[in-house]
Sequence to fold (142 residues):
Amino acid sequence: MSMRQITAVLFLALLAGCVDAPPSVGINGPTGRASDAGKLTPVRVRTIWKYDLKQASQNIVAKKLPYGTTAKFDDYVHFEGFYDARLDVTRVAVYGNVATTSDYGASYNNGYYVAWEQPGRVSSDDLPPWHIVDVEILDLPY
Fold:
């Protein structure tokens, strides 16, 4: 058997051994960093939070865009929530896409990401205002 044939057989045997392996569940939490394992717990984003944070996030993003007065946001907005035990805060990320148009007719499509937080492990609807943590305008849409 030639070296090329041996290499091909070994590669196929290795590949066949991976087929039955269970899918990796990954690291708990949105960051994917090993240091966050066990410290981040997913939190269900409540409907009232979505209602409050969607409009507030879009207002902040529109102010940061060069042609924010023409901003048209996608109807579908993504929400992700988690509790960070290390910092004792609940964070909610709001992200989606926005399109703007310049005075000369050029169109721009951007993604946006806004992170909000509340102290402690939050689970109620009656909350003080959320505190903004981060705002990012991306060059490409999600």
